[in-house]
Write a structure and sequence with these properties.
Helices cover 45% and strands 19% of the residues. The protein is built from 12 helices and 12 strands. The protein has helices spanning 10-16, 44-47, 54-90, 99-112, 130-143, 148-151, 247-258, 276-284, 286-307, 310-320, 322-329, 335-353; strands at 24-25, 117-123, 152-153, 157-160, 168-190, 193-195, 202-213, 223-225, 236-237, 240-241, 267-273, 333-334. The strands form 4 sheets. Strands 4, 5, 6, 7, 8 and 9 form a 6-stranded antiparallel sheet that branches. The chain has a two-stranded antiparallel sheet with strand order 1-12. Strands 2-11 form a two-stranded antiparallel ribbon. Helix 3 runs antiparallel to helix 9 (286-307), helix 4 (99-112) packs parallel to helix 12 (335-353) and helix 9 (286-307) packs antiparallel against helix 12 (335-353).
């Protein structure tokens, strides 16, 4: 596998190389049976796995995260298929029905072009649905008897709020209406001056990132650090929960949250010299390429981290008996297939950057 030196994706290639650890997904149900975590994908085997013990919650969150990431990795691979097919068409190369073949064809074409230069720069990150991780973390820490306030490091204890907030309120989305401090690009007024870029002062307009509203805001539809008049989630940590008893469980929560990432509206430039047709294809697909690169960058290390939790999750099976074993046994997607999907995406990223 190529290392993506010019695209800030080197860590992705390293992470993806370690993903070939088979685990199981799609084993649990989409409904909450009142005793388990709920929202876990699959069939009857996991429906019978109920309770609020630490081991039960650990198995359920792990199966959920594996399934969520499998679905997202498959989607990203499909996005790369569409991109590579489009670029192949622009240079008169055959298309294919799978990303590995299509992007491989593109890679072979690019390598054969003497004097071809490709420079791609992508800015802008991804935003996950924080409430998914927060609600999940709260169940993990409760099951492990962790004090969320005492064990939260590198972040703050917040709640998702749909009302007034006594403290600071942070609204995160690909784009939000903002009247506060914008972490990202501000499209509107920055301290009274029109802007479409970064704003170190007060942004009034649309913030592409996260907007922090002053304490005491009447309406906070985001993360509230303080007391909220209408909580939409249990308290959770925006950083790392340093409670070893819940480590495997919270890592799975992070995996499920990252599977919801929105990487749209990237800032991307591509300078291709030596092949006018390829350049035309790149310019027509810039937004899709930037989004796919950002998604690949974000997902690969998360998948690698969850793969590293395998032994801890599987060890919980012996503690909760045959129901947990059945939950895993009925899973239809292994983490090996997730690794294959993300590896294909990493290779595709290398191809479009010209670094493979």
């Amino acid at each position: 596998m190529a290392f993506l030196n010019g695209l800030k994706l080197t860590h992705v290639a390293v992470a993806a190389a370690a993903l070939m650890i088979p685990v199981f997904a799609q084993g649990c149900s989409n409904t909450d049976d009142g005793g388990g975590l709920g929202s876990v994908v699959g069939g009857a085997a996991c429906d019978s796995l109920s309770g609020t013990s630490q081991d039960v919650i650990t198995v359920q969150t792990y199966a959920q995260a594996a399934s969520d990431l499998a679905a997202r990795a498959t989607k990203v691979q499909a996005d790369w298929l569409a991109i590579c097919n489009s670029l192949n068409t622009s240079v008169g190369q055959p298309t294919a029905s799978d990303a590995s073949t299509s992007c491989g064809t593109l890679n072979t074409y690019i390598k054969a072009q003497a004097g071809l230069s490709i420079a791609v720069s992508v800015q802008g990150g991804c935003h996950a649905t924080a409430s998914i991780e927060g609600t999940c973390d709260a169940k993990c820490t409760a099951a492990a008897n962790c004090d969320i306030t005492a064990s939260c490091t590198g972040g703050e204890v917040v709640v998702d709020c749909n009302g007034s907030c006594s403290g600071s309120c942070t609204i995160s989305d690909p784009s939000v209406t903002c009247s506060g401090t914008c972490t990202g690009d501000c499209d509107g007024m920055c301290d009274g001056t029109a802007t479409t870029g970064t704003c170190s002062g007060t942004c009034t307009g649309t913030c592409h990132g996260s907007c922090e509203v002053a304490p005491g805001s009447a309406e906070c539809n985001g993360q509230c650090q303080g007391t909220c008049s209408a909580n939409a989630s249990p308290p959770y940590c925006t950083g790392t929960v340093s409670c070893s008893a819940a480590a495997t469980c919270t890592a799975s929560c992070h995996g499920s949250a990252e599977a919801t990432i929105d990487c749209s509206n990237p800032s991307i430039t591509a300078v291709i010299t030596g092949d006018a047709a390829l350049n035309t294809g790149f310019q027509a697909n810039l937004d899709a390429i930037g989004t796919a690169i950002n998604e690949t960058t974000a997902l690969a290390p998360v998948i690698a981290d969850l793969a590293g939790q395998t032994s801890s999750a599987l060890s919980a099976i012996s503690d909760v008996g045959t129901d947990a074993a059945a939950c895993f046994a009925t899973s239809t997607i292994s983490f090996a297939s997730v690794g294959v999907s993300i590896n294909v995406s990493v290779s595709a990223s290398a191809t479009v950057s010209g670094s493979s």
